Amino acid sequence: MSVSARGAASSASAPAAASGEPTHLGKAFGQPKPDTHPHLLQKHERISRDEYAVRRLQLAKAIGPQAAAVVPGYGLRYATGGIFYPFHQSTNLLYLTGFNEPDCGCIIESATKDPSEHRFLMFVQPADRRTEIWDGPRAGIEGARTHFGATAAYPIEAFEDALRQLNASAATRRLYSDLPLTQRSAGSASRSLSGSADSASGSTPSLLENTHIKVSSSSATHVDKDASVSKMLLGRAELHGRADPFFELAAAQPSSSSAAPGRTFSNPWTTGRDTAQGTTVKPLASLIDMLRLYKSPAEIQVMRQAGRITGRAFVEAMRATKPGTTEHQLSAVLEFHLRMQGADGFAYVPVVAGGRNALTLHYVQNKQMLRDGDLVLVDAGGEYGHYASDVTRTWPVNGKFTAAQKKLYESVLRVQKHIIKQCTEAARTTLDQLQYETAGMLQEEISALLGRPVSMGEMNALYPHHVSHWLGMDVHDTGSVSRSTRLSEGMVVTIEPGLYIPDSPNYPPEFRGVGIRIEDDVAVGGPSTHGAPVILSVDAPKEVVDIEAVMAGIV
């Protein structure tokens, strides 16, 4: 698969892949663009095409020569029958391409020692006038090249063929992918991801398992009855009537239609062995996670806007809170104001927990009525420009903290403000070290409030979660990166201490059943911020006086 064509930097001069699709300048795409949606995408609040190219170059450097990275997107998921969920793209594919249409994938192939020679291949749904009547416009194969920088682009139905060519290629020594390419061990019975053997049926499991990608380029979302994942397409040497050397080796592979009855085509990837030419298959997520861990100035700008939008939505939620309001009404207020400011909606299912419901960390039923005298804990965030915000605030339903509530709240707030100050490169700290410090400080605070020593064992019940996680395109971003990683500029984290007092006679009645968490999104401080951390969610009030002023209508 080694070729001489350069990667993203020279993609504009790469030859067009055959598409058979209409060509028209200025066509609408299946996602907002700055020139078509300036009201949503301000120039200073988006990731440029050049930055996506730099990300792919960084990945090409990471995988090294004679290697390829396979990154599938997602297809639509279905709730029931023909009713689909709102589409959300694979964030790894979004990070590398910015492409936000269903049923796609890409391959980044680094054949030489010069990573700038890498090839960026996209596989997308072709633009199709018949389908666009149902589903709206698509970028198509031409758009994948001209607007997303692909060296070459192909219909999504060719994606699996490209994977099989990698299997047959002697030029690729390492393959990075998180697809189930080695789901079975050598000599074992053929099994699908569900665990059922498929040797009797003679079927071959899809290499795109669990992505929900559908490869039929002509089926419309609203009328397609088949929500299954893609078929195994073998031996396709021509795309829309035009041969391409990229698929010459794939054409030599046996076809499932020509296999003897009862026999299953055995792809070495899915039997757990090396590929046909001894290529080593390695996980990809950890490599991309290390790239995603360090945010660029443009990413920080987008995340600042996500935090700003979320903070302002919290202000409106506080103003709307009163006894008799329901949790789901408060959730609706949040979502309305997120969307009205340009967010795509919630970045995750929100927690709106009144009273004792706050003792359940992931309470998402959000159906109860808010009662006079209780607190309400809200953990919510908007998604803006493909980046998440994650904010938690706790406030009194009637607009005024009781003396006991205020004591507990300010104990948590003191700890949170201190830990945020430690989120700097100069502090030479880690998230795990911050957790240790948080637990110790909360232990001191609650011991002082209760007038008795609180053991660390008891603290595990009063404060049962970690103080922080990485934040970015996913709410719990870069999951393979250890919390023992030293903080440095470019990282974005959450800081979210809390106290959750059980309804138990071991605690004063005025504290029982109270759950308090305060969470902000923080960009780690470094040289460009004069050493200080930057709170991205500062627009959400958290001082007692500010919360009460907002709820009283003073501000």
Please explain how this structure is put together:
- Its EC number is 3.4.11.26.
- GO terms for molecular function: aminopeptidase activity.
- It comes from Polyrhizophydium stewartii.
- With 555 residues, the protein is of the alpha+beta class.
- The chain has helices at residues 49-63, 91-97, 129-135, 140-146, 159-168, 248-251, 285-293, 297-320, 327-340, 403-421, 431-450, 456-462, 544-551, and strands spanning 67-72, 78-80, 83-84, 105-110, 119-124, 152-155, 174-177, 238-239, 242-243, 280-282, 345-346, 351-354, 375-380, 382-384, 387-388, 391-396, 492-495, 498-500, 515-517, 520-523, 534-535.
- Strands 6-5-4-1-7-10 form a 6-stranded mixed beta sheet, with helices on both faces. Strands 11-14-15 form a 3-stranded antiparallel beta sheet.
- α8 packs across α9 and α10 (403-421) runs antiparallel to α11.
Short description:
The protein is of the alpha+beta class. It has helices spanning 49-63, 91-97, 129-135, 140-146, 159-168, 248-251, 285-293, 297-320, 327-340, 403-421, 431-450, 456-462, 544-551; strands at 67-72, 78-80, 83-84, 105-110, 119-124, 152-155, 174-177, 238-239, 242-243, 280-282, 345-346, 351-354, 375-380, 382-384, 387-388, 391-396, 492-495, 498-500, 515-517, 520-523, 534-535.
Roughly what percent helix? 25-40%
Structural class: alpha+beta
Number of strands: 21
User: What is the count of DSSP helices, taking H or I runs of 4+ residues?
Assistant: 13
Average pLDDT rating: 83
Q: Widest sheet: strand order? A: 6-5-4-1-7-10
The separation of the N and C termini measures 63 Å
Major sheet characteristics: 6 strands, mixed
If you compute it from the alpha carbons, what radius of gyration comes out, rounded to the nearest whole angstrom?
26 Å
The general outline is: globular
- % residues in beta strands: 5-15%
Poorly predicted regions:
1-25, 182-203, 222-273
